[in-house]
Amino acid sequence: MGFFHLGLFLCACQVLVLGVVASAPSGKLPIIPFDEGYTKLFGDDNLMILRDGKSVHLSLDERTGSGFVSQDLYQHGFFSASIKLPADYTAGVVVAFYMSNGDMFPKYHDEIDFEFLGNIRGKEWRVQTNIYGNGSTNTGREERYNLWFDPSDDYHQYSILWTDIQIIFYVDNVPIREFKKTKSMGGDFPAKPMSLYATIWDGSDWATNGGKYRVNYKYAPYLAEFSDLVLHGCAVDPIEQLSKKCENTQSSESVPTGVTRLQRMKMESFRKKHMTYSYCYDRIRYKSPPSECVINPQEAERLRVFDPVTFGKGRRRHGKHHHRSRVSQADEATSI
């Protein structure tokens, strides 16, 4: 399909999805059985579907990790899962809940990520969000946070709202990051149809203190539990790139349209207390912030005090700077 016709389709589908979305916190969206909405991606027996057909266990051991993917591509929508992460020593372990079209557009793919980064015993899991548009992998848009709870103790809800103008990440219905499209971004805002993925895998080379702490398989298998999986958006035919169906939620109050005043207060409080890295303030990677960044002086000062090398004048104490894919250069300062 030509880019002109694809562009017309994308525009039409955006209108459909945005026109039916109602305002309010997420809540009672339909949860479909695994076999109706998802398919196994990899992992053999390391992926286990529970008896209710709506819960999935993904495990990582010495043989392999595991993962699943949505059967449909989606053009915008609301995507959510309740996730319980592995406990104890989890250094090097990465659990991901994300959207991507890398298999269809390997050179200019889009991606919207929740990445959960394990840690050594006694240290907490960290959550990383990241956004790529049109293959813009050289401009990492990572943010990293600690959480106000232990994500291995119980299930917690992690959600992504994706429209043609914004992306919002939620934890237990609290927005933790709002990413708005700007004219200066050009095509770097995710715009092409994507699938939803969930995976667990070995990220020993980078995930914990830049690879210093690796997966220790004496603690395997590492088990990540997923339930309450929500796929709520405009499904797209993978061949024709045409809309198969757009869920009608005109009367629903379950899907948010943005950040309310109360939610914004909660988001600002979360970021003040728990954000440990933002690419917008990284002076090692960027001499000046990327064009879409809106600098908050309070955030800038707090991060500068927290890590004056990364967020101050941008001078490394030792060695030469090298870019590391899918993880910030501040990992050594923020993970342990």
Automatic annotation (TrEMBL):
Signal peptide: 1-19
GO aspect biological process, one term: xyloglucan metabolic process
Gene Ontology CC annotations of this record: apoplast
Residues annotated as the enzyme's active site: E111, E115
Cellular compartment(s): Secreted, Cell wall; Secreted, Extracellular space, Apoplast
The record's account of how the chain is modified after translation: Contains at least one intrachain disulfide bond essential for its enzymatic activity.
GO MF annotation list: hydrolase activity, hydrolyzing O-glycosyl compounds; xyloglucan:xyloglucosyl transferase activity
Domain GH16 intervals: 25-226
EC assignment: 2.4.1.207
Keyword entries, A-Z: Apoplast, Cell wall, Cell wall biogenesis/degradation, Disulfide bond, Glycosidase, Hydrolase, Secreted, Signal, Transferase
CDD domains, alphabetized: GH16_XET (cd02176)
Residue stretches of biased makeup (Basic residues): 313-326
Ranges of biased composition (kind: Polar residues): 327-336
Pfam families xref list: Glyco_hydro_16, XET_C
Chain intervals for the UniProt region annotation (Disordered): 312-336
Spans traversing the lipid bilayer: none
InterPro entries documented for this protein: Beta-glucanase-like, Beta-glucanase/XTH, ConA-like_dom_sf, XET_C, XTH
Source organism superkingdom: Eukaryota
Role this protein plays: Catalyzes xyloglucan endohydrolysis (XEH) and/or endotransglycosylation (XET). Cleaves and religates xyloglucan polymers, an essential constituent of the primary cell wall, and thereby participates in cell wall construction of growing tissues.
Similarity comment: Belongs to the glycosyl hydrolase 16 family.
Protein name: Xyloglucan endotransglucosylase/hydrolase
Organism, as annotated: Malus domestica
